Amino acid sequence: MTAVDPVALTAALIRCPSVTPVEAGTLTLLQDVLEGAGFDCTRVDRGGICNLFARWGRRGANKSFGFNGHVDVVPVGDAAAWTQDPFGAAVVDGWMYGRGATDMKSAVAAFVAAAVEFVQATPPDGAVVLTITGDEEDKGIDGTVALLDWMAAQGERMSHCLVGEPTSPNTLGDMMKIGRRGSLTAHFTAQGVQGHAAYPHRAKNPMSALVALLARLEEKPLDAGTAHFDASTLAITTIDCGNPVTNVIPAKGAATVNIRFNDAHTGASVTAWLQGHAAAVEAATGVRIGVSVSISGESFLTPPGAFSGLIARAVQAETGIVPEPSTSGGTSDARFIKDHCPVVEFGLVGKTMHQVDERVEVAQIVKLTAIYGRILRDYFA
After folding, report:
1. How far apart are CA 173 and CA 323, in angstroms?
2. Cα 355 from Cα 348, distance rounded (Å)
């Protein structure tokens, strides 16, 4: 088989309008390329989500390098605001435009190209595994989770995994992710007693109770940070009661907060903290406050060591930059993989991801392919 051109493959993937949960031909394209290079491929579809598992080498190999990526993208938003076709993959002044160009079709194409070249040039004593999902930008329950469930049932294994999320804030190579904060959203519902605004003593104002609760939650930081994490954060995202008039105290109100927590906490401990504050405000005001919490991911850390060191050295060798090991940012599918094997994230500069005119510098695709190729060579050396 001839070499895979990562730039051409990126363009072909961008031209597939794979807005979650639509596969739009992306995985069929990748499967054709990988099978042509000797990879065993299996579609692992679940719940209307399309996923692809690919392995070169024997099942159960003692040493198995894994790559995780996604081909689904967020909606384009206002298509008229784009200067180029969001699914056209046009190249202008050295930049390729398109939804998913940065997040993260380029990284998927770069690793596929690097993996194909690697196994053909220097077949390793071990296995190279790709887990590609179509459900990273949404809930994720039928994406990477489905792939990991299927792998467990089939006896498939990754010894270590690299996730190709865009991790570099300014320059390719300046950051890799060795962990992520946990994330949860808490919904508060307050049930009071409706009344006339001129006679507040005859009512129980749910909005006053919610304001008091939110003030308590923001009064002190959750923590001051830990060895590898910044301080946890809490953001009030909405507070409302839908009251259309000004002279009525409403009977019900609602508020929502989002918390990004470090490894000093768990989803359960943060939930208990929220419930404790809600109970205190309920007791003080007589307004009933319900708490509903959705945990999208726990915090995790892959401690600095041999695996992160290998990736850092490969990045430095190709770029001259030593990547900062970071736990910043939102969540990623690494939060699922960390229960399977050690995981580190490294990828492109993410400045334009999810934006109008999302784009990737073509030269970065080529450089990222070289980095991924070196990581594979060094891993199996």
Report:
1. 5
2. 15
Catalytic one among 23, 72, 103, 135? 72
| Catalytic-role residue among 23, 103, 135, 136 | 136
Q: Return the CATH number of 182-297, one of 3.10.20.440, 3.20.20.140, 3.30.365.10, 3.30.70.360.
A: 3.30.70.360
CATH superfamily for 6-180+300-379 is Zn peptidases (3.40.630.10)
Indicate if 263 belongs to the active site. Answer: no
- Catalytic residue status for 149: no
Return the structure tokens found at 172: 């390719």
* Tens of each residue's pLDDT in the chain, 381 residues: 569 999 999 999 999 999 999 999 999 999 999 999 999 999 999 999 999 999 999 998 999 999 999 999 999 999 999 999 999 999 999 999 999 999 999 999 999 999 999 999 989 999 999 999 999 999 889 999 999 999 999 999 999 999 999 999 999 999 999 999 999 999 999 999 999 999 999 999 999 999 999 999 999 999 999 999 999 999 999 999 999 999 999 999 999 999 999 999 999 999 999 999 999 999 999 999 999 999 999 999 999 999 999 999 999 999 999 999 999 988 899 999 999 999 999 999 999 999 999 999 999 999 999 999 999 999 999
